[in-house]
Amino acid sequence: MENLNAVQAKEMIMYIADKIIEAKPMLTEVDSAIGDGDHGIGMAGGLTKAKTKVEKMESPEDVYAVFHAAGKAMLMSMGGASGVIFGSMFMAGAKGMDPVGEIGAEELAQMMKRSLEAIQERGKAQVGDKTMVDALSPAVDAMEASASEGIVPMLTRAEAAALAGVESTKNFEAKFGRAKTQGTTIGFQDAGATSVWIIFKSMKEYAETH
Amino acid sequence: MENLNAVQAKEMIMYIADKIIEAKPMLTEVDSAIGDGDHGIGMAGGLTKAKTKVEKMESPEDVYAVFHAAGKAMLMSMGGASGVIFGSMFMAGAKGMDPVGEIGAEELAQMMKRSLEAIQERGKAQVGDKTMVDALSPAVDAMEASASEGIVPMLTRAEAAALAGVESTKNFEAKFGRAKTQGTTIGFQDAGATSVWIIFKSMKEYAETH
Amino acid sequence: MKKFINNPEDVVSEALTGFVDCYSNYYEKHEEVNGVLLKNRRKDKVALVIGGGSGHEPMFSGFVGKGLGDAAACGNIFASPDPGTIYETAMAVENSKGVLFVYGNYAGDNLNFDMAEELLEEDGVKSTHVRVWDDCASAPKDRLTDRRGIAGDLFVVKIAGAACDAGLELDEVKATAEMARDNLRSIGVASSPGQIPGLDKPTFEIADDEMEYGMGIHGEKGIERTKMKTVDEITEYLYFNIKKDMEINSGDEVCVLINGLGSTTILEMSIAYRKLKELLDADGVQVHDSDINSYCTCQEMGGFSISILKLNEELKKLYDMPCYCPYYAKEGK
Amino acid sequence: MKKFINNPEDVVSEALTGFVDCYSNYYEKHEEVNGVLLKNRRKDKVALVIGGGSGHEPMFSGFVGKGLGDAAACGNIFASPDPGTIYETAMAVENSKGVLFVYGNYAGDNLNFDMAEELLEEDGVKSTHVRVWDDCASAPKDRLTDRRGIAGDLFVVKIAGAACDAGLELDEVKATAEMARDNLRSIGVASSPGQIPGLDKPTFEIADDEMEYGMGIHGEKGIERTKMKTVDEITEYLYFNIKKDMEINSGDEVCVLINGLGSTTILEMSIAYRKLKELLDADGVQVHDSDINSYCTCQEMGGFSISILKLNEELKKLYDMPCYCPYYAKEGK
Lengths: 210, 210, 333, 333
Ligand SMILES: Nc1ncnc2c1ncn2[C@@H]1O[C@H](COP(=O)(O)OP(=O)(O)O)[C@@H](O)[C@H]1O
Ligand SMILES: Nc1ncnc2c1ncn2[C@@H]1O[C@H](COP(=O)(O)OP(=O)(O)O)[C@@H](O)[C@H]1O
Ligand SMILES: [Mg+2]
Ligand SMILES: [Mg+2]
Ligand SMILES: [Mg+2]
Ligand SMILES: [Mg+2]
Description:
The complex is a heterotetramer, with two copies of chain A and two copies of chain C.
Chain A: E1 4-5, H1 6-22, H2 24-34, H3 39-55, H4 63-78, H5 80-91, E2 102-103, H6 105-123, H7 133-146, H8 151-169, H9 191-208
Helix pairs in contact in A: 1-3, 1-4, 1-9, 2-3, 2-9, 3-4, 3-5, 4-5, 5-6, 6-7, 7-8, 7-9, 8-9
Chain C: H1 11-22, E1 27-29, E2 35-38, E3 47-54, E4 71-77, H2 83-93, E5 99-104, H3 107-122, E6 127-132, H4 153-165, H5 170-182, E7 184-192, E8 210-213, E9 224-227, H6 231-245, E10 253-260, H7 266-282, E11 286-293, E12 302-310, H8 313-319, E13 323-325, E14 328-330
Helix pairs in contact in C: 2-3, 4-5, 6-7
The complex binds adenosine-5'-diphosphate (2 copies) and magnesium ion (4 copies).
């Protein structure tokens, strides 16, 4: 894949949704260990809505509109902190962009970067606060650094960076999230970061095969 | 003791009160096995009030007034079914009687008989319903049958009859009382019947030594 | 079970003091006995005195108010108040138009309230009573007077309070309250026990996956213990049992109370109400008014009951009169 | 923990349906989202929209009423409603005089309500918010905005509702509600956990003889875990902590709420109130009004909190305005 067109963006979202729905039990387990255990339910529900939404876009012509619709569907249905955070991951970077039929690696990286900024602006989490930002931030860095290599290599690096980010969350103490546990959270990975990794992994897998 | 005078009636009530207060833990245990465990607290509380009340009667001149005052103090303070029942045991038979300085065995027996009738009228319990009536009713029968022998022999027989009555309650299933247990009550003695026995035992002990 | 108390023996008196302190805009405590008195009460009507054992809060002390009880006589936990308490409480609020006592039908309460009525009679104060026996699981229909009073007490207090407010005479108020009582059925389900402060045994024992239909509000044995069911199934069973006991026909108007026994949440009871409403709709029964609340509790017992009051013209008129107390307020229609 | 539910996933929607069915004389459900709307609301005033996660009933849906919230946006259990739900709920009740949102200060709620405000702005609807951070145990005083909102929410809703009713403009209502928020402190104690329907773990774990000061209403870690104390000792500690945080002087007038977290009884909380009143009396503080109730729960969690609202002329006037909903009614003075 050289560029990502609007129809591919739609298919990519649908592919991500399937993978997140598949991972629902795993995400539940991860969130249960130190959170309130609802992250799998929330993400699976949100991405089901996103999938339904983009499925209805018959022959989409604007890549950004596809991402925006998916993010908005999540945002408007999930609730909790993660609804806004993960909705923004797809929506914020696509918001207000001029319609385009396809985007390259550079645009994709920039879109994710804008999303990251919006997420941090809204959620106030920094790297090291044991949130999804710990996976998204290095993934965005990796995208920016490797965008010139093309979409597939870029997403491959992004996935690896996200996974390392997930690992890093084990070293941090949680600062966000409503149902903090009583004990330490060190040694446990963050649920939202895990979702970020699954999303990048899915994007890469889709890109590799299309 | 040939007759019971008003001062002795007062002392007898005080003696009963001390014995019931002594028996509080035992009565609690008995009521706990199949009831709600408050019988010891209730009886001890009621007889403390009765004792305080008659203690204040400096040189009482009416035997019935002493019993009535004691019963009323119990009745007006104990609450629950047993307040009325045990209050009536002292009060009902003394109520409306012409004042007398002392009473003989016959009068004592008749007083208890009137109390029993009032208790059954109010409480509707029959012998065999596993209540204090199972001890009081045979005790009253014994009193009537042996009144001619004098107070001490009469109370000795009454105590024995009450104790046999307590034993008999083990064979019955409870029909009264607010907090019935879930299982069977057979094999357990009734708390109220136990109190009746202690009361007769105390009356006898007092009479023997005065 | 951990309790927020000081000395177990002081629970009732300390709680009454605090309760009356808290609602001192409305209530005062009787100086001598455990009676809660309404401060600014109407003086030209039959006095409504309610009461019973403590431990079921807000029942009974919390239903003293305008258009409700004029006073509540409070016993120890799960034990009837003594005749002295009842007598003094009634004397403090009676206005020479007589006293109606409304209380749950339990042996201890019956004995003590009867005794109090005798004391009032000796003083020339007219009084009478209505015993509430709404729990249709507590005895068969041919032994109505053996049935216990549970959350349905509230409806009888509401109607009796309105009848007093409407200026009815003592015998009329009594007849009206009895009409409410006779048009009323309740039945509950329990899932976990409550605990009396100071005692170390819970009011009953039940397995982790079990529940019991028809259990009483002191833990009295119910009619059937079974594995935990869905709330829809439970609601269906409860409604079915009420209908078996009291005719409810299409076109009837009813008031409904879903009453929590202590620790069951409004969230859960709302789901029960949803099902009950479906069943009532299917039967063509119209709900005039309804509540979901924990009005008659058994300490922190888990479970809830359904109470249904069938209205007629007269009951409806009285139900629609306004009432106010901190725990139960109706605007009136 | 046994729950009276059907499918865990349907709890919130089924409960909302039942709740609105039960109080259909007052409420209607938003057709598309989990919003509870007041039926006969005034149309000439700022709209007050409250909300947050479900599971704390009667908070928030139960505080929709006259002189209170015009609507409540309800999330899943212990999770903020999404911006769509908040937006649609607000749109259903706004009357072109703007919308004030009052909610507890939690990361998720802040994110979602902010997002909803942006959506309203895009549609030209003015809105603003007051976040309640009354729990003085949840963060030190120099990090006020990190504090959580607990039972004190009710006081801010009461004052904001009265300010709306009094015809104040949006910015004035906001300023008044903030004044209430800033004159308000709460702190609680927990003795046993609640449980989210469908989850098999309780919200926290605690030993049989322990309690925890300052625990949050979702089981958030408190400030001190200790052996169970007497309620007098506990009340003293809680009051002491509030006084450490907010100046309370002799002659001050306050409103007080003792709020049960789920399974703690009115009996126990009345004993706590008794002690609190003694302490306030000793400090020369006058109680203008007070309540003992379970208004902001954490499912069947054991424990209670104390909330104190310090009055000034303006707050008192607004507090004394009447309000009515099935769970909270004040007659007005
Ligand atoms: N302020 C925040 N910024 C970034 N990510 C956040 C923030 N708050 C929470 N998250 C992410 O959301 C995840 C939790 O999501 P979820 O369990 O669905 O929501 P909740 O915490 O409301 O139960 C966390 O693991 C974290 O990665
Ligand atoms: N109707 C009745 N007639 C006679 N005795 C009764 C009756 N009801 C209860 N009792 C007696 O009272 C005793 C229980 O007393 P107590 O435990 O003090 O009261 P409660 O049953 O209210 O807890 C029973 O053991 C029984 O002997
Ligand atoms: Mg979570
Ligand atoms: Mg007993
Ligand atoms: Mg008892
Ligand atoms: Mg959550």
